[in-house]
Each structure stands twice: as C-alpha cells, then as structure tokens.
Amino acid sequence: MNPSHVVLGGLKCGFSVEVMNSKTIRVRRLSSGMGKEAADWHAVYELCCRTGNGGTPIARDRWEFFGRLWVEPYKNIFPQWTYVAEAESAIIGYLTGCPDTLAFAKVKFWNFSLLLLVDVFRGRYRRNRDARRFVRQIFGLEKGPERVFPRGLSRKIRQDYPAHLHMNVEAGWRGSGVGTELVEKFFSDLRSAGIPAVHLYCGADPLEFYRHLGFTELAKITFCGAVIHVVGCRFRD
Ligand SMILES: CC(C)(COP(=O)(O)OP(=O)(O)OC[C@H]1O[C@@H](n2cnc3c(N)ncnc32)[C@H](O)[C@@H]1OP(=O)(O)O)[C@@H](O)C(=O)NCCC(=O)NCCS
Description:
Layout: E1 6-8, E2 26-29, H1 37-50, H2 63-77, E3 82-87, E4 90-98, H3 101-121, H4 129-138, H5 151-160, E5 163-169, H6 178-192, E6 197-202, H7 207-212, E7 216-223, E8 226-234
Parallel strand pairs: 5-6
Antiparallel strand pairs: 1-7, 2-3, 3-4, 4-5, 6-8, 7-8
The structure holds coenzyme A.
Coenzyme A (COA) binds next to strand 5, helix 6 and helix 7.
C-alpha cells in the first residue's frame, strides 16, 4: 500500500495539435447542468462508467456512486470547463476540466464531498465499496492515487500547473482524433483565460497520448504495484 519511489521530471513543454475528422466529430463546451444540458451530463456520467476501469466498463452496480464521484463536482462547480465530443448524434468522448485546482479542491470539499458523505451515512450507497473507500479517504484512513504523492509536491504541481483534466473516449472511437480535439479546445479556452499550465494524473497506458500533445512527466510513483504518473503542460506565450 505504501508508495515506493518518487521521480521529478522536466517542467516545460510546447503545445501543438492537429484537428482531425473535424467534419464528423464536433466538440462542444457545456455551460451548466440545467435544461437541455441535463441529457449531456447524463451521457457523460454513463461514458465515465463505461470507461472507468482504465478504459473498460466498471461493474453496473458501481455506476451510481462512481459517476457521481467523478462527474458531479465538475457539473456543480465549473460546468463550463467540461467538453463533449459528438458524432452521429451521440456523445463519444468527454473532458472534465478545471482552471484552478486549488480553488476547486476547497469548494469541492464543502459543496460536494460533505453532501456525498451525508448520503453515504444515510445509507444511500449500502454495500458499495467505492463509497466505503470514499469515506476512508475523507477521514484520512486510506489514500487515493493522487494523495500518495508527497503533499508538498502535489501542492507545488497545483500551483505551477493550476488547471487539471480527466477524459475518456468511447472504445470504438479511440485513435480517431477525438481525444486530441477535446484537449485542443480545452487548451484554447485555458489560454484565453490566462491560465499558464495544466496537469493530470494517469496510469501508463495513456501516457504516450499525453506526450504526443506536449505534456512532460513531472513525477511518478508506484502505488499498489501500479505506476501513477503526473504529467504537465506549460503553454508558451
Ligand atoms: C487516452 C484517450 C483519451 C486518447 O483519446 P483518443 O481519441 O484515443 O486519442 P487520439 O485519437 O486523439 O490520439 C492522438 C495520438 O495519440 C495516440 N494515442 C492515443 N491513445 C494512445 C495510447 N493509449 N497509447 C499510445 N498512443 C496513443 C494516437 O495513436 C494518436 O497518434 P497519431 O496521431 O500518431 O496517430 C482515449 O484513448 C481513451 O479514452 N482511452 C481509455 C481511457 C483512458 O486512458 N483515459 C485517460 C485517463 S487519464
């Protein structure tokens, strides 16, 4: 359970992407969880669960809690920083992002995590192991993958690379440029908002994709036998 080593990497990178399949894939920025967009958010919840196990589906009985845990904070706090990719009238990819991770974490605790905790204690997610893990993490009895990095390092990364993102693309659409288009749109909006850099945590599989987009490795750590990477991308002026 204990982290076994930490490696710091380079800190600067460029950013250059190509737009592919722009005729068939449309990337759209969401704005709120209300009205017509309720269906979009529902599609994001479902896609998150269909891809939540390193790109493969998680068990159906975990969907309700898992989707809420990973999507609701973005929907409630910064809905305008979530993007969906559409093709053939279906949502085939999403990116949930945030321009200021430090601010997000504070709001998330009071406006999301505490409410979820209350629901867990009221028995809404009985026998759900994700809910049990969430409670243990809130009370500091267990570390999530991001928390295994030394606290000072995580804080520095959040300061130097303030934005972060999570993303997933429907299995049948991977390798078609969808992920690139989502990141490209997010980066463009971050630059317009004056945000200097972005980071994310990932496993080994998508590392090459992020490198391709100009991310460099900032740190990595071995946790429960798997390597977790933190990668960052700093925008050039
Ligand atoms: C990782 C992911 C978001 C990338 O989106 P995508 O639409 O498949 O990526 P793109 O088609 O835009 O790929 C851009 C480039 O990166 C490469 N690439 C994409 N995923 C890759 C991977 N897992 N390993 C190596 N290269 C990858 C593509 O081959 C492509 O290179 P090319 O332009 O030379 O052909 C998507 O594959 C996915 O959802 N994977 C499963 C879940 C996951 O890992 N999510 C990320 C969690 S942090």
